[in-house]
From TrEMBL, chain A:
Domain Alcohol dehydrogenase-like C-terminal: 196-265
Named cofactor requirement(s): Zn(2+)
Database matches in SUPFAM superfamilies: GroES-like, NAD(P)-binding Rossmann-fold domains
CDD domains from the UniProt entry: FDH_like_1 (cd08283)
UniProt domain Alcohol dehydrogenase-like N-terminal: residue ranges: 25-150
Entries under PANTHER family matching the protein: DEHYDROGENASE, ZINC-CONTAINING, PUTATIVE (AFU_ORTHOLOGUE AFUA_2G02810)-RELATED (PTHR42813:SF2), ZINC-TYPE ALCOHOL DEHYDROGENASE-LIKE (PTHR42813)
GO molecular function: oxidoreductase activity
Enzyme class: oxidoreductase
Keywords (A to Z) from UniProt: Metal-binding, Oxidoreductase, Zinc
Gene3D superfamilies: Medium-chain alcohol dehydrogenases, catalytic domain, NAD(P)-binding Rossmann-like Domain
Name of the featured protein: Zinc-dependent alcohol dehydrogenase
EC number: 1.1.1.-
TrEMBL record, chain B:
Upper classification of the organism: Bacteria, Bacillati, Actinomycetota, Actinomycetes, Micromonosporales
Stated name of the protein: Uncharacterized protein
Source species, domain of life: Bacteria
Xref: InterPro entries: START-like_dom_sf
């Protein structure tokens, strides 16, 4: 089959690779219809991830059609249109049973690596091959889906592919951002980053009854999108003092919930990013947040961050929460909301390309060129 | 026989003591102390995870070389299953040595995880085959 492979630092190539095969009884094979780029892939693309090998297939947000099921798969059959959670989780361990699917004990084939890096193994993720999970990515014609009954969800008839593909990762991540922040009626919420996750966090906060939601970014085209499609307030940090502006828009208190949806790889080098040592958006979130408020870290971070404003966290009584998304918990609810038109995501797919043009799609996505929020590939 | 299943209640006082890591976190690497217990928590009761007198796969081949304990985990989290080399040695004796790389702790951990996966999900999760395994698929 054809797949978009890592070909070396900052290099991608569409190549012929082996078709995936059933490797476990709970596996199924999905023929990909849509596969979206994601900021988390940029760390892989830049070659800063150990164990990534030339020829590994990238991508973890996808939707497709079931073509083959293993003997232990009960909920799916060939022909089903499914969206697959980007996180690979077993559904059976203690963490999964608590709804902490991203923390799954059994979702990775290389748990020793994350245990060494972070002290505990975490669940798996597609497109993090080698020792970081062991699963080929979705920028391909076919994908193997382990624990198929746990991670794949039938897409309701009225929901389009272009909408539902965001239920794989960006929408559950955004929902989690609002949930970890405990966002409720009357809250003022600020979100750093107007990418797909930031926009969907803002949308989730509004669905949960937030009074005001403000999204901070540097790109006017994205901020216009936030205003038009999400109904949140834009704030361009190139023109205004963010902390002062947020204080003014929240009665001098500061937002109740501040969500960082930027990550380490978004803008390197620039005001935000330039490596994990400059978490500028996160610092601004901590600084701006009201006393006793909650700061949620949603961006993808893998290593260490110094110059973190711990003094502000402690003296203002902040809660800092974070996770990779526990999508299995929210995807059915998000699909229902999509079917009812409460949650619209297709505008995020600013660039739709055939898989063959995957390299170009990533260049657009990485450089934020041509108003690119997400490139979505179809094999 | 080194196999011992500790049920809840009175016998639990005999439960193994897992040494706590003290001091500052260190860089990742092999633990310098030989014979450390490797422990995983497995969903299920001790008598299901480690039935009396029977070693779960894939630890069976290490019978006689490691000791194995199971005890209920606090808070209803299942069973704490622990293994360490007999006599606290860093290397395994005899044929078992052939099964192990040079890091016994890592090897035991990996085996315990497989026991856990089998008990919890019914299978050991396998990685996708890398293109390198399949020379016919040169790019
Ligand atoms: Zn993603
Ligand atoms: Zn699990």
């Amino acid at each position: 089959m054809r797949a978009l492979c890592w070909a070396g630092t900052d290099e991608l190539a569409v190549r012929e690779v082996p078709d995936p095969e059933l490797r476990n009884a709970q596996d199924m094979i999905v023929r990909v219809r849509r596969s979206a780029t994601c900021g988390a892939d940029l760390a892989l693309l830049g070659g800063r991830t150990p164990f990534l090998a030339v020829g590994d297939v990238l991508g973890h947000e996808f939707l497709g059609e079931v073509v083959e099921v293993g003997p232990e798969v009960r909920r799916h059959r060939p022909g089903d249109r499914v969206v697959v959670c980007a996180a690979v989780s077993c559904g059976a361990c203690w963490f999964c049973r608590q709804g902490l699917f991203a923390c799954c004990d059994n979702g990775s084939t290389g748990p020793a690596v994350t245990e060494a890096a972070w002290g505990q193994p975490t669940g798996g993720c597609y497109g993090h091959p080698g020792a970081l999970g062991g699963f080929a990515g979705s920028h391909a014609e076919y994908v193997r889906v382990p624990y198929a009954d746990v991670g794949a969800f039938r897409v309701p008839e009225p929901v389009s592919d272009d909408r539902a593909v965001f239920a794989s990762d960006a929408a559950p991540t955004g929902w989690m951002g609002a949930e970890l922040g405990g966002v409720g009626p009357g809250d003022v919420v600020a979100v750093w980053g107007a990418g797909a996750v930031g926009q969907l966090t803002a949308g989730a906060a509004l669905l949960r009854g937030a009074e005001r939601v403000i999204v901070v970014d540097r790109h006017d085209d994205r901020l216009r999108m936030v205003q038009r499609h999400v109904g949140a307030e834009p704030l361009n940090y190139r023109y205004v003092d963010v902390a002062a502006e947020l204080r003014e828009r929240s009665g001098g208190r500061g937002p109740d919930v501040c969500v960082e949806a930027v990550g380490a790889e978004a803008e390197a080098p620039g005001r935000w990013g330039g490596g994990a040592d400059r978490p500028l958006a996160l610092r601004e979130a901590v600084h701006s947040c009201r006393k006793g408020g909650t700061v949620v870290v949603l961006g993808t971070w893998t290593g260490f961050v110094d110059a973190f404003p711990l003094g502000a966290v402690m003296n203002k009584g902040l809660s800092v929460r974070s996770s990779r998304q526990h999508g299995q918990r929210w995807i059915p609810m998000l699909l229902d909301r999509m079917a009812r038109d409460e949650l619209r995501t297709e505008h995020l797919a600013t660039h739709r390309l055939p898989l063959e043009r995957g390299t170009e799609g990533y260049a657009l996505f990485r450089d934020r060129a041509d108003g690119c929020v997400r490139a979505v590939f179809s094999p | 026989m080194a196999l011992a299943v500790l049920a809840a209640g009175a016998t639990a006082v005999r439960a193994l003591v897992v040494p706590r890591r003290a001091g500052w976190p260190r860089a990742a690497g092999p633990d310098p102390r030989p014979g450390r217990w490797q422990v995983v928590t497995v969903a299920g009761r001790p008598e299901d995870v480690l039935p009396t007198g029977r070693w779960p796969e894939p630890l069976r081949r290490l019978d006689g070389a490691v000791e194995l304990h199971a005890r209920p985990a606090p808070g209803g989290r299942g069973t704490e299953l622990a293994a360490r080399p007999l006599r606290g040695e860093a290397a395994l004796p005899g044929p078992a040595a052939h099964l192990v790389g040079d890091d016994l702790g890592l090897f035991l951990r990996e085996r315990l995880r497989q026991v856990k996966q089998l008990a919890e999900t019914g299978e050991v999760l396998r990685a996708d085959r890398s293109p390198v395994d399949r020379p016919e698929a040169a790019g």
